[in-house]
Design brief:
By secondary structure, the chain is of the alpha+beta class. The chain has three domains: 140 residues, Serine Threonine Protein Phosphatase 5, Tetratricopeptide repeat, CATH 1.25.40; 137 residues, Cathepsin D, subunit A, domain 1 (Beta Barrel), CATH 2.40.70; 138 residues, Beta Barrel (Cathepsin D, subunit A, domain 1). The protein is built from eleven helices and 23 strands. The protein has a six-stranded mixed beta barrel. Strand 2 and strand 3 form a beta hairpin. Helix 1 runs antiparallel to helix 2. The longest helix has 24 residues. The relative contact order is 0.11.
Length: 434
Amino acid sequence: MSHASKSSDLLLTLLLQGRCFEARELYDSIDKDSISPAAQTFYNYKNCYFNNNIEKAREYLNSFIDSYLDVIPLDQKFIFLNLLVELETETRDYLELENSYVKILNILDSPPFCNPEYSQWSEAQKKTINEYILLAKHNRNIVPQMRVSTLDSVPSIVKFSYDKTGSLINCSASLNKRNCQVTLDTGLGVPCLIKQHTADSLGLKKIDFQLDSLDFNGIPTAVYATMIDSLDIADKRLYNLLGVVLQETHDKKGKELPVNIILGLPVLKELDGIYINWGKQDISFMNEDEKSSNSDYIDIYILYNCLYSKLYLNNHPFIGMVDIGYVASPISIYEKYFKPIENDFTIDNNRHTRQIGTINHSYSSTVISLREVDVKLNCNSNTYKISNIDVELDTPITFGIKDGVIGLSFFKEISKSTYIDFQNMKININPLKF
């Protein structure tokens, strides 16, 4: 195998696995002439997707499929075709989703899938896809695309408070012109999660949208979809917000979800950015140049409605999910990441058991803490000494590409203000003195 072929294959593998930072580092380190045109187009698609630039991502992915699908091995063709479906499903662009299904139908009508040896399989696939097209048409009429506007003569800054645990960020908002409190959570992968009694009090009705259950704290929970006409927060108005109504809001131990309405990453990433001033306890949603000129930053990227970043812990690279709804510790590390490098850290041997609860998982884990870990945001950043970083041992869940979670208190502990910039895909830090 040639060097060019090896480079292209490795790049494609990293991109398909969602390993954004490793793919970028490989791309930057190799001779661009060693990258095949197909790998270059696919890299352009994934890089735009990671950077929340969906329009360009769609353009590159369609170009890749139109140009290179014929030379992709038969058993891999639908891996790439499914990326089209995932992209449009995630963005709720049902018209583009219909177009993607039609593209797949056209491929099924072409060799080799139209050949006799594939006819039975192809007909079954086409029947299923035609059903999906009907569902996409239905959803397009029921669930219009979300859009955001900026309101004139409305304060761009809103005060925030903490929930009754003293941890989660709550803001005043107006939902369908009725006052409410919303919680911001970049770790939530659905647009808006609402307790049923809150939905009832706000007059939100069930819509005919295929959504029956959601894992809530590790428990399959009955849910239904609702459509929020508008939600105002500071000077932003969000239209056509898809709400997921939880019909049961207690975890396995009977503990209830402490907040009523949560805005997740699919909504938050459509805003220009989230600027949090910790001292003044206020938030704005804007993209001003001065907010991008702070002295420290970390790069971020998005994969399947999860927000990821890269830190360095005692000089070891660490990929964490950025979750401002996670409040158990500044940073939580998974055992699979920690074990090979544990000798480079000072461990507090006071082990304890913690019940870990997220929207999707609930589990018990033995936890140890690390003392005075040197944390860097990038190769040239300040070094922040952070204690009480947790290591979750015997975690029963495989978490894919991430090494742990970067929680709300990490940013609060190191900075005067934090700006999550969804246009430039960075988190800018105005650091405290260390």
